[in-house]
Amino acid sequence: MNFKSLLILFIVIASLNFGAFGQGDAPDFDKVEKLNDVYSIGFKSYDGEFYYNYDPYVITSSDTIEIQNLNGWHLSHGYMSPYGEMASFEISKMEWVYVSDDSSYLTEQLGMLTIYLETAKILNWYTQESLQQNEFLKIEVINDEYSVGYMSHDEEFEGYGEPWILSNGHAVQIDGISANLCSLWNVSPNGKYAVFETLSMGWVYKSENDSILHDRWSAALVDLSKAKVVQYCQMDCGDIWNENNQWVNGSKVIFDGTDYSGETEFNNLISSCAGDLNKDGVMDSVVVTQDTAHEIGPYQLEIYFANSNGEMTLMSKTIETIPAQYPNTREGLRPMYGFSSISIVNGVLLIEIELLRGHFVHKFRYQDGEFELIGYTRHESDGYGKMHFTDFNLMTGARVVEIEYYSTDEPKEVKHTTKWINPLPNLKTFTPFGNELY
Length: 438
Prior knowledge:
Elements: H1 3-16, E1 31-34, E2 40-47, E3 52-59, E4 64-66, E5 74-80, E6 86-98, E7 104-116, E8 121-127, E9 138-141, E10 147-154, E11 159-167, E12 170-173, E13 181-187, E14 193-207, E15 210-223, E16 228-233, E17 240-241, E18 246-249, E19 252-256, E20 268-275, E21 284-290, E22 299-306, E23 312-318, E24 337-345, E25 348-355, E26 358-367, E27 370-381, E28 386-393, E29 398-405, E30 413-418
């Protein structure tokens, strides 16, 4: 359901069920909607032509304050901020345009605004046009300067994704969050940073009748002014900001908002390669960079398509496909793996990760407008006389597992199985170590 349909649905429901919000029998209002235990919204008038209420007021137990400067817009469904002091409302305006005495047509505009409830002051105002026709399924208030809008909804796992930061009529997608589920967790006291809980969740199909639910949780700390993830955390992430704008876990500072300049970038080139990824006869480019100043040393993978004029277009960017160098921070336990190389072979992007006694490779191919995982190979010694080899063709479902004994004369063990994965994993949301198959 798009933004327009959703808004019309809310208008109809609100007009038919005004008593469901409590306080519906307030004496001076045609309709009252309860927002939380402190604030309600009251409407003094009703438009019978378009079936909506107008002339809104913020109501508390001791006061009523008119919401002014709406200029013909009317409010419908409201979303509360985490701390309950602000609310975002879907807004719409319907007007007849008269071409002549006998000809007219109805126009409708849609949008969203944020209100500071204590004073009934409008803080932010977004129209459908100002948001460049982005259709947000849900908008949450962050503070008096920022809100977050979600472009997608996962019905199976009942959550929202594709978050955008909204501010002063502009919308920018958050750079660095690719999980299919995302929610606002906490905001720094200075209002410059927000922590989002992200969850990559989906089914991995071993066969038509056998599947595994894969999930990967992390906390993403976002610089709101840049709409960009500045730090990820997966273990011992803490849950509170202190008064110094530091995100902490007990006595350990996870992120220091007083020292962060907002300029940390993936500016250290680690690896690059060239090859024709989209079969147009022109050499494309793949680049891996690292944020060496970051506490976990994340890697960023960027894929650029080239045209015949030599111009490059960014087609994909992710910080999740290659595991960070210090996933447990520089002071934590070091992982027994690390990024090795990237290459392009026969139009397929290969990403190799070193292990303590071996390596594995993920193979991505550009097809149907996306980079999808089509293959996985792994070579690894257990250190006790066995060499393990795995080759998984996700296009055919053929999976081969071999065990070779290099310290004895035992014969090689070979096992063939078929495992169907549908849909194929997408590079944008893919994370390694997510399951036992690839």
